[in-house]
Amino acid sequence: MKKNFSILTVLLVSILFTSCKAFNYQKDTKTDASSLLSNALAGNTSQTTTDLLGRVLSYLLFGNTINEENIIGTWTYSSPKVIFESENILAKIGSDIASDKIEKTLGEQLSRVGFAQGKTTLTFNKDNTCSFTYGSRTYPGTYKFDASSNRLTITDAFGVGNVKCTACKNGNELYLLFDSSKVLSLLNTFSNSSLGNSTAASVLGNYKGLKLGWSMTK
Questions:
Q1: Which helix (H) or strand (E) holds 170?
Q2: Who contacts 138 (Cβ-Cβ below 8 Å, separation ≥6)?
Q3: Taking a C-beta distance cutoff of 8 angstroms, is the pair 184, 199 a contact?
Q4: Is residue 115 located within the same domain as residue 197?
Q5: Same-domain check for residues 206 and 125
Q6: Which residues face 165 on adjacent strands?
Q7: Is residue 161 one of the residues assigned to a domain?
Q8: Are the C-beta atoms of residues 52 and 36 closer than 8 Å to each other?
Q9: Residue 76 is assigned to a structural domain of this protein
Q10: CA-CA distance, 163 to 121, in Å (whole number)?
Q11: Count of domains for the chain
């Protein structure tokens, strides 16, 4: 009996040690937005830090100025995008967890209204006309780009009057980003219906300080 008790004790200690080790590993490797941002300001440009800051609007705009000539051409829908308006918002919300959930929901809604990877296109012409194709629909319109503020104004091409967004480049991608409060209205326009009080509406409208939109490639 004493021998069996000793064996049981050893097993329990081993399990406890393994559990604690796993817990500490998860704790140590958990993404800490505040720490990563502090490291970045101190000159740490690790891949993890760079990837995280790639979700911050000010970081994307810094050193990536674009002008009207940069956006001329045909761009094809690639993926939904969720971008933090500032480093403080990123640190407050807590790394990528919230944005991943929102990005997934946004992608599902864009797909529902007719966005398709490699098929949905937006064309900017030199004469400031443009056209937007999604699903089976194509809308002509006009655009105006203010390079000083990265503000892109698209008229009629989204099936509605003036729509304003922030345009920025990330590598070979063009991001079109909208205030989170405006995305629901835009999705409703695309679908000719209302998301109302649906779960999607709740998720997309639940966070302030985010820019929601999508990326496009040439």
A1: strand 162-170
A2: 131, 132
A3: no
A4: yes
A5: yes
A6: 152
A7: yes
A8: yes
A9: yes
A10: 17
A11: 2
Token pair belonging to 218: 């040439």
What's the pLDDT tens digit per position in 18-28? 333 332 322 23
| Domain containing residue 83 | 59-217
Q: What is the Cα 198 distance to its own chain's centre?
A: 21
pTM: 0.73
- Residue 130 falls inside a structural domain: yes
Tens of pLDDT along 88-107? 777 766 555 567 888 888 99
Low-confidence ranges of the chain (pLDDT < 50): 2-34, 41, 197
Please state, in angstroms and rounded to a whole number, the distance separating the CA atoms of residues 33 and 205.
Answer: 22
Q: What is the dihedral of CA 172, 151, 213, 130, to 10 degrees?
A: -70
Q: Is 33 left (phi over 0), alpha (psi -120 to 50) or beta?
A: alpha
CB 100 within 8 A of CB 84: no
- In whole angstroms, what is the distance from residue 53 CA to residue 84 CA? 9
Is residue 134 a part of any domain in this protein?
yes
Question: Are 160 and 72 part of one and the same domain?
Answer: yes
Q: What is the CATH number of the domain that holds 213?
A: 2.40.128
∠ CA 176-179-180 to the nearest 5 degrees? Answer: 110
Cα Dmax for the chain: 90
Dihedral of CA atoms 49, 51, 52, 53 in degrees, nearest 10, equals: 80
